[in-house]
Amino acid sequence: MSHFPGIAVAFAAAALVLGCGADEPATPDVASKPEAAAPAAPAPEAPRRLPLGLWVLAEGSQRVLEHPERADALFRDAAAIGASDLFVQVYRGGRAWFDSSHADAAPYRAASEAWGGDPLRALVARAHAEGLRLHAWVNVLSLAANRDARLLRELGRDAVHVDRQGRSLLDYPKLDVPQPERRLVRMGTPAVWLDPAVPAVADRLVATFAELSARYPELDGLHFDYIRYPDVLPFSPGSRFGVGIDFGYGAASRARFEAETGRRVPDAAGKGDGDAWDEWRREQVNGLLRRIGEAARASDPDLWLSAAVTAYPERAYLSLFQDWRGWLEDGLLDFAVVMLYTRDDALLHYESRAYTGGVGGERVWLGLGSWLFARRPERALAQLETARAARPAGLAFFSWDSIADAPALRGALAGSEPGGG
After folding, report:
1. What angle do CA 74, 421, 86 make, to 5 degrees?
2. By the 8 A CB rule, do 315 and 238 touch?
3. Nearest-5° Cα angle at 20, 17 to 22
């Protein structure tokens, strides 16, 4: 079992990684030297390497959990680019690639036949043998396009988000905003989104990921994705403005809010207590994360918790109710990986420095969109250097699949020593 150290130790390690400190050199033994001789200066230490993560998709082009013959390529590529951590997707669309009694485990059963055993357990063992850490990556509140998910069959339509006009996402055409609004507003990530304020939803997700931790104590971490409210483009900074489209207006959620706060949910015209409603919805995500973390660590106190989080923390806070700065400050996460996917190099330069400063910045990893530069690997290398210069706590590439599919990109990253500090 190869777990991370505790948080305090991690901070010290991060300081070393970023060149903020170093072990004290051993006191030279000068007793046998002439008195006039000064002790030799210690040799400079080699630069320490930043942690480097790879996201590994469950349903991407490679599908390594279903194809054991591709594991060699994964670990060969991970070694070539200097990876230290793998974020392996094991829960997507309400479907599990791990042994689960709470989720649809059909993918796990099929993959187990291909591997001749548990695929996740086999990958963790191989990762540890290769000196890598492995985090189970789970899509928390998104069911992707899976309208027939087991969770929905068992919990019903009330589990899914409803917009301010009273429309369920299940009734959105192609899971995108209906006309006439669609001419001006679009879903950022069309999907079936679960409402965390529905108690049955929260209970099911907590049980699912607690089971994952308990059944796989060899895991190094649990990595959360899509732990937020749905995103709409363009976004509105809060419900009190009464414009745009936002979610969480299911009957059960509205009744809970009004019963717990004595305040009124904003209506379609914006009348109601928007500030209190936004804060309450934000706390539904905070509370879900807190509950999952506590349940997962009940069986493994050393399990590291991380999340792939939305770039632009103010937008995440105001519109998606994803307060990831607060999660870091309150210790709900050990680190956050900001999905800084952009072709705009100036924006990358500005934002990479902004994220690594401020609240929790010492535990922020920068996630780079390597797939954007499959045909322009030199651009990927330039962004990598920009990200390194911001001195983050770690780096990550999205994704291994895109790197495996682009030999030129893979070759460029393999020659770049991206783990260098």
Report:
1. 25
2. no
3. 75
Pairing of strands 221-225, 304-310: parallel
CATH second-level architecture of 7-22+46-160+190-232+292-414? Alpha-Beta Barrel (3.20)
Of the candidates 25, 24, 93, 86, which has an alpha carbon nearest to the alpha carbon of residue 56? 86
State yes or no: cis peptide before 234, omega within 30 of 0.
yes
- Confidence band of 417 (pLDDT split at 50, 70, 90): low
Structure tokens that stand for 272 in this block: 């109601």
The answer to pTM > 0.85 is yes
pLDDT of residue 12 exceeding 50: no
Two tokens, residue 348: 């990358």
Structure tokens at 271: 């009348």
Taking CA atoms, 91 is separated from 74, 181, 306, in Å, by 19, 32, 15
Query: E strands of 320-360, at which residues?
Result: 335-340
User: Residue 267: is its pLDDT beyond 90?
Assistant: no
CB 168 within 8 A of CB 252: no
Q: One-letter amino acid identity for 310?
A: T
Which residues make beta-bridge pairs with 396? 53, 367
Strands, E assignment, 197-303: 221-225, 232-233
**What are the DSSP calls for 297-327, one per residue?**
HHH-TT-EEEEEEESSHHHHHHHS---HHHH
CB 395 within 8 A of CB 52: yes
The Cα 205–Cα 196 span in angstroms is: 9
Alpha-carbon distance 256 to 35, whole Å?
79
First-to-final CA distance of the chain: 27
